[in-house]
Amino acid sequence: MNITDTFGRKHNYLRISVTDRCNLRCFYCMPEEGIELTEKDHLMSLEEIIAIARQFTELGVDTIRLTGGEPLVRKNFAYLIEELSKLPVTLKLTTNGILLDKYFDLFERIGLKKINISLDSLDQAKALYMTKRDYFPRIMANIEEALKRGFQIKLNIVLIKGVNDAEIKDFVALTRDKNINVKFIEFMPFKGNQWDWSKGVSEEEILKEVSRHFGEPQKQQDPAHSTSSNYQVPGFQGSFGVVSTITKPFCEGCNRIRLTADGKMKNCLFATSETDLLTPHRAQADLKPLILEAIKGKKFSRDGMEVMEQSHYEENRSMISIGG
User: Are 64 and 92 in contact, with CB atoms under 8 Å apart?
Assistant: First the structure.
């Protein structure tokens, strides 16, 4: 049995947001006025996350990525990830890197190897401007330690014109001598983040900038279901990729489902409709028929948006409430 939508796409990748809390305040993720945090009783408990994840694995999910908010601020996160590691899945993590040093030994023990770290600037002052918090030295130290320990590290960079797009060359330069993947992400619209595409930086612009400084990069073979187009500068140890959600949607091979911290299943990052799994789970219902029925409502691309319409994405949640 597997989770297949009406376009024949099998969904084996589950992204679970374990909290809507974060120790940063990135303006493209959290609305300027903040968000109303979910009451504790409406959040999935750790045991509920584990039990619901198990039902997804029984439907063929073999990859789980934990996100937030910032997942490492969730109380008793170590217990959660250790229990999830007992499921028949590959575990992955997206984090801002601030608390990573507390978990390196545990991650090594349970076999979690793939970590995405959000890092939007290599300049401490600019990082403070974008995140409203000054953790830059700690984050950079944790990235170095993660690489030293052999973790597979990707850096997630949301590019915003006039803010951090001048750093494209600096991020790619990191891949010269480090086995690291830099992932540039086009600025995407969510409730309250003041999006318009004039602030965006396209894949075409990114590639031009890389070529100007390093020569034309080589296109790499993209893994199945990859959300990024991947490249490498000849002679460099690492690589870089571009997540071009706006200019070149990659929805054809989508295999991802999202579970929000309050137990709602979302078929797409931009989906305005959600399926409540937590309430029926608390009523001891079998979630598998509900999951299989919910996936049938998945649209082919970007929840049916041909172009980004404010009336649509403002009905969605803020990014921090969905999960990174």
Answer: yes
Q: Give the C-alpha separation, 201 to 243, whole Å.
A: 11
Burial of 34 (0-12, 13-18, 19+ CB in 10 A): exposed
Residue 132 amino acid letter:
K
CA–CA distance, 186 with 196 (Å, rounded to integer)? 11
Query: What pLDDT, on a 0 to 100 scale, did the predictor assign at position 307?
Result: 63
Tell me, what amino acid is at 141?
A
Task: Return the H-helix or E-strand segment holding 125.
Answer: helix 124-131
Enclosing H/E stretch for 46 = helix 46-57
DSSP conformational letter for 122: S
What pLDDT digit, counting tens, does each position of 172-192 carry? 999 999 999 999 998 876 655
Q: How many CB atoms lie within 10 A of CB 42?
A: 12
CATH superfamily to which 13-322 belongs: Aldolase class I (3.20.20.70)
Two tokens at 63? 């990859």
Mean pLDDT of the chain: 90
Strand partners, 181: 154, 239
Written as one letter, the residue type at 87 is L
Helix (H, G, I), strand (E, B) or coil at 298: coil
Q: How confident is the model at residue 33 (pLDDT cuts 50, 70, 90)?
A: low
Which residue, among 269, 262, 260, 276, has the nearest Cα to 298 in the 3D structure? Answer: 269
Confirm if 50 and 84 have CB atoms less than 8 A apart: yes
For residue 170, give the DSSP letter.
H
Q: What is the pTM of this model?
A: 0.91
pLDDT, tens digit, 9 for 90 and up, residues 141-153: 999 999 999 999 9
Do 51 and 281 contact (CB within 8 A), yes or no? yes
162 vs 149: CA distance, rounded Å:
35
